[in-house]
Design brief:
CATH topology of the largest domain: Alkaline Phosphatase, subunit A
Number of domains: 2
Number of helices: 15
Strand order of the largest sheet: 10-9-11-1-12-13-2-14
Structural class: alpha/beta
Radius of gyration: 22 Å
Shape: globular
CATH architecture of the largest domain: 3-Layer(aba) Sandwich
Strand content: 15-25%
Helix content: 25-40%
Largest sheet: 8 strands, mixed
Order of helices and strands: EHHEHHHEEHEEEHHEHEHEHEHHEEHEH
Distance between the termini: 24 Å
């Protein structure tokens, strides 16, 4: 059998007025998966650990993130289509709005007007023999690669991850000359790009249009290129990824999956998820394993918007789960999340996520896909690192251990 993994980013939640968004939503097709499948809850990395989307996905693909994870930056860079070489440092970036040397919005109002031109004008700066490669990513995001000699990823972020404060000065995390040199490059890049962006005509236009200026670059998550075994070598199947998020596409590219782009997908609550469903159905004709990632649930969670998250879940049920179930066969389907992002917290938490597997499985007595219902299922509580083992065993692709 073929295998399909559907991840609804940050879908797990806590109770708000007695219900989670999943419990409040109308989800007849997710409930069909639960009723006709086997259910449980899952710690994507390990119990009690708050996972990032990066470490969570590495774990769900069967890798030990405590061994292979080198930082989010190189994953974002790979997702943006940048090729990292040995010794390169990748850094995750945001366009931000600064006034009187204080950050007023870390995401420049999430307004993309003119950001591509701004990105073009700060790409390729050379600082003390280090080439900087900058690329705009979807939304307010960007990716930066530092290419040179004697670089280190052991440096602090310039992004304070809060507003009404100044951009942080990057400092080395160890006593090496490489870390001192690299933090200096980051601080010089901040200064140079701020000077370029502050008086740029695009920002003059943005302000005339009533938009926040994108006059600063915030950096975080520096890391070196990770060395990761290819997914096909590890699991014996060729995989395809369908996602609008550069971080997720970067992870998939680094492990050797083919990335399928779908027009109109943004990673926001207005994304073309129906198009993703159609692409998934088509991909299953050619690939033994397909991974479908949907981001909008996490965006609503970070905004603390219960109703938006509930509506996004209902869109997924109608526009993704229904057409997939109606148009595929001979496929085991996993429906789960990479982590919980409760709307009451607005950040990732260690709460386990619901998981249901539909296909050639031993069914249980659960009939609704929610956090509390799935917790009563026969899968019990599992660790995400073993999800691929479970899935490929169900698909009859697992090897016998022993004689």
């Amino acid at each position: 059998m073929k295998s399909l993994l559907i991840i609804c980013d940050g879908m797990g939640d806590r109770l708000t007025s007695g219900k989670t968004p999943l419990e409040a939503a109308s989800t007849p097709w997710m409930d069909k998966i639960a009723k006709e499948g086997i259910n449980g809850i899952m710690d994507s990395v390990r119990t009690g650990t708050r996972p990032g989307s990066d470490t969570a996905h590495l774990s769900l693909f069967g890798y030990n993130p405590f061994k292979v994870y080198t930082g989010r930056g190189p994953l974002e860079a790979a997702g943006a289509g940048l090729t990292l070489k040995t010794g390169d440092v990748g850094i995750r970036c945001n366009f931000a709005s600064v006034k009187d040397k204080k950050i007023v919005d870390r995401r420049a109002g999430r307004e993309e007007y003119g950001l591509q031109e701004l990105a073009n004008d700060i790409d390729g700066i050379e600082i003390d023999g280090v080439k900087t490669i900058f690329k705009k990513c979807p939304g307010h995001r960007g990716a930066l690669v530092l290419r040179g000699t004697n670089l280190s990823s052991e440096v602090t972020d310039s992004d304070p991850e809060e507003i009404n404060v100044g951009i942080r000065k990057s400092v080395p995390l160890d006593d090496s000359e490489e870390a001192k040199f690299t933090s200096g490059i980051i601080n010089k890049f901040t200064k140079i790009t701020t000077e370029i962006l502050e008086d740029h005509r695009i920002n003059e236009e943005r302000e005339k249009l009533g938009k926040l200026p994108a006059n600063a670059i915030l950096m975080r998550g520096s890391g070196i290129k990770p060395e990761i075994e290819r997914f096909e070598m590890r699991h014996g199947v060729k995989g395809a990824c369908i996602s609008a998020t550069d971080l997720i596409k970067g992870i998939c590219r680094l492990v050797g999956m083919d990335v399928i782009d779908v027009e109109g997908t943004t990673g926001h609550v207005d994304s073309n998820i129906k198009g993703k469903a159609l692409a998934t159905i088509d991909a299953l004709k050619s690939y033994e394993f397909v991974f479908l990632h949907i981001k909008g649930t996490d965006e609503a969670s970070h905004d603390g918007d219960f109703e938006a998250k509930k509506m996004m879940i209902e869109r997924i049920d109608k526009e993704v789960i229904r057409p997939i179930l109606e148009n595929i066969e001979n496929t085991n389907v996993v429906l789960t999340a990479d982590h919980s992002t409760p709307v009451s917290v607005r950040e990732h938490t260690a709460d386990p996520v619901p998981i249901a597997i539909y296909g050639d499985v031993r069914t249980d007595l659960v009939d609704k896909y929610t956090e509390r219902d799935c917790a009563r299922g026969d899968l019990n509580r599992i660790c995400g690192r073993y999800l691929m083992d479970i899935l490929f065993d169900l698909s009859n692709k697992a090897k016998l251990f022993g004689a």
